[in-house]
Amino acid sequence: MSRKNFFSVLNQEINRIDKAKTSKRFEKIITGFTNERSPKAIIGKKKFQVFNSNDYLGLRHHPALKKAEHQATEIFGAGPGAVRFISGSLKVHRDLEKALAKFHKKNDAMIFSSSFAANLAVLFCLIAGQNKDSLVDSDVIVISDALNHRSIIDGIRVANLPKEQRTIFRHMDPTHLEEVLENNKKIYKRALVVTDGVFSMLGEYQKLREIRTIIDKYDKEYVNGVLLVVDDAHGVGIAGKTGRGIEEIEGVKADVLIGTFGKAFGADGGYVVGSQTIIDYLRESAATYIYSNSIPPGTAAAALKSIEILDKPLGKKLLENSKENVAYFKKQMKKVGYFFAVDSSHPIQPVLIGDPFKTSVLVGKLFKKNIIVTNISFPVVPKGRDEIRVQISAVHTKKDIDQLVKAFKQEK
């Protein structure tokens, strides 16, 4: 026996994935973008309308972000050089953390290389402590929404709790969450409830106000209370009147909020905001923060500029444009006979197709019309709920949207 046998097993698994039509490695190579209000992606020699980007405000191509990135790179270099506890923190990183804390009205913030890395670290540390000497025990029940993002699922997995200490509550069902908390209040010292703020497949907003009310009710029923952790990667920067995300929409606060710069802020990297106690503890215990480089200084400066823009007239205008574009797209699609998996006001608009083959074929036909969208099928969504996830940007023009709707209509 040799490693060739293992490679054979890997090839069989790759073939299985390909036959299931769930392959993800055949990415389209984008060689650049056009210089216009709504930049088109250049693939080969053709220009494509982009309707599958998380760049909800269209900021990643904004001159102010590019200028800020260039200036910071000139000052600090192309990369951070090392992890922060070894070589120190660059001022641009700390300035960004202070801006985040102010933006979210929290005590402090810390940035990670990605929001996936943030979720892994935050959940592991708040569930199980950092090591065997930690005073943070694992006498905890972890309760997760059934449709939470993979990074949350993996964050819970790496904590390595016994199966009985990991459970889910039905998707967006606060009543079921209350049942779980009630049933476990005499079993565990504490509970940790974790959820997405905005669910990425459907653009749904979590019922955070109801969840917060239930958690506050049961906080005194657990010796060490109940903690609410929210991953609002698809909410911060775009959702709410001023872009403060699910907390602003629902009018309540999470105990720990995780976000990203890689979507509405148009940059890259992840972050967490919370009380000073939470952030101080995470700085001492979060492995993907302590032992992994932070985002490049130029990227941090671009993210910082995005936060500044959001509270200026330009940011307010972009938020208004986003809402108008989403409403316009929904209205026009309904006119030509299409329906949505859910009724959402988020830039994520799930066009319901209902069949995996038809969904895949339609995405291919739209691509031939120089339009990029993404198909989402089982097991990411339930069987029969196959969708094309269209993502509307604040910088899309009415003409862009009309062309997309026309293409859908032609393939009806």
From TrEMBL:
SUPFAM superfamilies: PLP-dependent transferases. Keywords: Ligase, Transferase. Signal peptide: none annotated. It holds the Pfam family Aminotran_1_2. GO terms for molecular function: ligase activity; pyridoxal phosphate binding; transferase activity. Its cofactor is pyridoxal 5'-phosphate. Gene3D superfamilies: Aspartate Aminotransferase, domain 1, Type I PLP-dependent aspartate aminotransferase-like (Major domain). The keyword Transferase applies. Residues 51-408 form the Aminotransferase class I/classII large domain. This is 2-amino-3-ketobutyrate CoA ligase.
